[in-house]
Sequence to fold (362 residues):
Amino acid sequence: MESNHHKNKQNTVMKAEEEQGLTMEEKEKPENEGKAKKQWKLVSYDELPGYMKENEFIKNYYRAEWPLKNALFSFFSWHNETLNIWTHVLGFIVFLGLTLLHVSHHVPEVAQFVGHITWTIPVSTVENVSSNLGNFFGEAASYIKPPVIVSASEKSAPVAVRWPFFVFLGGAMFCLLSSSACHLFCCHSRRLNLFLLRVDYAGIAIMIVTSFFPPIYYIFQCDPHWQLIYLVSISAMGFVTVFTLLSPQFSAGEFRAYRATLFAGMGLSGIIPALHAAVVNWGEPRRNVTLAYEATMATAYLTGTAFYVARVPERWKPGRFDLAGHSHQIFHVFVIAGALAHYGAAVIFLRWRDEVGCAAAL
Ligand SMILES: [Zn+2]
Fold:
């Protein structure tokens, strides 16, 4: 009886407020605003909920339990994930650009579009940048300079299939984008954090697996038996790695070295087909160039992974590198450098197959 009476009283109060033109939302607004202001402040490591305590050497500028909208807009503000997000978004844009340049070989509409862009942004910019990066990237860039002209003049030449090349570009873009999304939204909630971390790990595994496609496919194009063995092996390793990492406990900070070992193991298994290919193509002059590219890739990935595991330099001066210069940002830059070096090698493999076809390789 008493509770009924209470309810009736509440209803009367609500009705009275409705009559005054106050909706529920408006009523709650001032209170929410106060709460939100408190929430959107950047916090210190000690104030973080347990699942976000990942790196104790980064002391401040954390976003914790932010609403999705605020997390999204934090793309444009400074916090300790800003450069983690931006490095991989820029990497994504670079790989999207490379994909468009290569797609333009085959689709006239894209060719027109890319042609328009290259008119607007002078090609010399690409050349200057590439020459500054030295011979490694310079050679790769020389392949992307004249996308439209090359496709027209090369129509009569034997053309190798493109899909393994695009599989790699797609894998790289997926990895870079899922990593960016993870760094942007991981601060929202425990559930989303766990989900995005898994997507991020899956992205890394996909990047590694898809990286194997161009070299394995083109090198062993005349030997489908080995092609199949290597591609199935690396794909199986990718699946096992992703399934292992689906278990939430592996996302914790203390499993950092374990995760790195799994991914590094996947990547390093590429040494076997690389040695095989080096022996099979002993007399091929382009062998050393591609090996140099792939050695650059391996060095970049391993150096990046070392930073990721060691958490250097923030370990030496905790709090000093919160916004810029901490290990994860350095790791991201090395990932992009490694992927670009691998792109350089993939372009050479592709051109080689365009030129020599299959019979000449044996
Ligand atoms: Zn990252």
Q: What stands out?
A: The radius of gyration is 26 Å.
